[in-house]
Amino acid sequence: MKRITLLFCALLATSLSAVAQKQMRIWQGGESTRVTLAETENIPFAGSGTTVTIGGTTYQTSAIDSITMVHQVDIAYNGSSATVSIPAAVAADVTAQVSGAHVVITNANVSNEIEFILSGSSTNGSLTYNGQYKATFCLNGVTLASQQGAAIDIQCGKRIDLIIADGTTNSLTDCAGGTQKAAFNCQGHLEVSGSGTLNVAGNTNHAFRSKEYLLLKKSTGTINITKAVADGIHCGEYFTMNGGTINISGHGADGLQMEMETNSDEPDNGIFTMNGGTIKVTHDAAGSKAVRADSTLAVMNINGGTIDINLTSTASDAKGLVCDGNMNISESSATTTITIEAAGEGYLDDLGEKIRTTGLKCEYTVTIEAGTININASGKYARGMRAATLVANGGVTIVKNTGSGSQGIKLDNVFVNTGGTVTGTFKY
Predict the structure, then answer these.
(1) Taking a C-beta distance cutoff of 8 angstroms, is the pair 371, 329 a contact?
(2) Is residue 316 part of a domain?
(3) Which residues touch 326 (CB under 8 Å, ≥6 apart)?
(4) Which residue(s) pair with 385 in the sheet?
(5) Exposed/middle/buried for 405, CB within 10 Å: 0-12, 13-18, 19+?
(6) Does residue 307 lie in a domain region?
(7) Contact 309/288 with Cβ under 8 angstroms?
(8) In 3-state terms, what secondary structure has residue 7?
C-alpha cells in the first residue's frame, strides 16, 4: 500500500470539520480529484481500511498517493467590481487590494497551499498574484478582459496548478500596447488539469506563457489560443503533454515554442514530450514556426497523440514541426498521427536562392520508430522534410511535394531504413 500522509490518517480517525478547509485533493498517479466538503463530513472506512468513501466516491486506499487539504480563497468578478473572500485561517497571510475589478493578491504563507477560485466576468478586470509558495488557481467560469496589462499575472516561481474546472468555459484577454509578457503569464512551474475550456487572446505579446516548464495532465480539457501578437504558447525549461487539446491560430510569431533554460537544474530541461492529446495549429505567420523545440541541445519526443499543422499560403518561409536538436517519433504511450500541410508560398531571394516553407525540420537526426506521418509540400517551392539524418525503424511516413518547384525530403547526411516505410522523393 502506498504511503498516505499523516493528515489523511487523522481524517480517518475522526469526523472532519471543513469550516476553514473546504477543498480536499485526492492524488492518484500524479493526478488529483478535487472534493468540496460539507461543513461536517464523515469519512467512513470499509473492509478493514481497504476502501474509503469521500464525497460519494469510493476509493481503494492502495491507489491513493496522498490527500491534501487546501484553503480556498474566492475571487468573484461582477462587471466593474470584484469581491475577494478570504477564510479566517489564512487571513493573517493573504491580503487583497481591489481597484474596480483589478485584484492584487499578496500571499505571505510559506507552509500551506491555498486555492484561488476565479469566477464571474469583467470587461476591465485582472488578477495579479504575488507569493513565495506553491498555489492553485481554479478557473471556474471566469471571463476577464484587462485594459491595463495581463488578464492573469502569477508572479511566483514555485509550482502552480492551473485547474480549468470541469464543464466551464473561461476566457482571458489582455490589453494592447502594454508591457506584459502574456495575457496569461506564470513565472513558475505550471501544471494544467481540468476538463473545461480556456480561450486566450494576447494583444501585446504572447497569449499563454509559463516561464518555467509547462505540463498538461491527462485530464486537461481544451486550450484555444485565438490571437497572439507574438507566440501563441511560450514556455521555458520543458514541455510535457499527457492529454488535452491545444488549438492555436491568429499568432504573429511561433505557435508553440519551448525554450531550453541555460541555468536550469530540471532533469527534463530542453525536452519536448508528447504522450497524448492533440495539438492543432493554423499557422499564417511568415518566417516563424508552428511547433518548436528551441535549442541545439533540445530533444523532441513524440510518443503518442495527434499533431495537425496547416502552414497556410501566407506562411512564407515558415516551418511546421521543428526541433533544433534531435527528434524521436514513436507510439509508446498512444497512437501517433502527424499531419502537416505546407502550403506557404516560397520565393526567390536576391541571389536567386529558393526560400522554402518546410513541413518538418530537424537540425540533427529524426528517428521514427512508429506512427503515421503525412506531409504535403503543396506551396510554391515548399519542402516536405529537412533533416541532417533520417532513421526509419518503423512507422509509415508519406511525404508529397505537389507544389510548383516543391521538394520532398532534403537530407544533409544519410537515410537509414531498418524497417519503416518511407515514401517520397529524396535530395541530398
Answers:
(1) yes
(2) yes
(3) 298, 299, 300, 362, 364, 365, 366, 367
(4) 360, 409
(5) middle
(6) yes
(7) no
(8) helix
How wide is the angle at C-alpha 88 spanned by C-alphas 85 and 94, nearest 5°? 65
Angstrom distances, CA of residue 350 to CA of 78, 185, 260: 57, 41, 34
Task: Summarize pLDDT for 319-361 with one digit per residue, the tens.
Answer: 999 999 999 999 998 999 999 999 999 999 999 899 999 999 9
CA distance 121 to 136: 20
Closest CA to 249 of 231, 265, 270, 274: 231
Answer with the one of 21, 45, 67 that is the final residue of a domain: 67
Q: In whole angstroms, what is the distance from residue 225 CA to residue 233 CA? A: 8
Q: Which residues of 189-206 are buried (b: 16+ CB within 10 A; e: fewer)?
A: bbbbbbbbbbbbbbbbbb
Q: Which pTM value belongs to this model? A: 0.90
Domain carrying residue 12: 6-67
Residue 177, C-alpha cell as written in the block: 500596447
- The phi, psi pair for 400, rounded to 5°, reads -110, 145
Identify whether 27 is part of a domain: yes
Burial class of residue 102 in the structure, from the number of CB atoms within 10 Å of its CB (0-12 exposed, 13-18 middle, 19+ buried): buried
Final residue of a structural domain among 28, 52, 67? 67
Asked whether residue 162 is domain-assigned, the answer is no
Q: Side chain identity at 110, as an amino acid letter? A: V
* pLDDT higher than 60, residue 11: no
Q: What would you measure as the largest C-alpha separation in the chain, in angstroms?
A: 80
The rounded distance, in Å, linking the Cα atoms of 402 and 34 is 51
Distance CA 217, CA 240 (A): 8
Higher pLDDT: 257 or 58? It is: 257
d(CA 105, CA 49): 41
Question: In sequence order, which residues have a C-beta less than 8 Å from that of residue 240 and are 6 or more positions away?
Answer: 213, 214, 215, 216, 268, 271, 273, 274, 275
Q: How many structural domains compose the chain?
A: 2
Kindly report the number of other CB atoms within 10 A of residue 265's CB atom: 7
Task: Write the DSSP symbol of residue 357.
Answer: -
CA distance 315 to 323: 18
Residue 221, all three cell numbers: 480539457
Rounded to a whole number of angstroms, the distance between the first and last alpha carbons of the chain is 57
Q: What is the mean pLDDT of residues 69-94?
A: 94
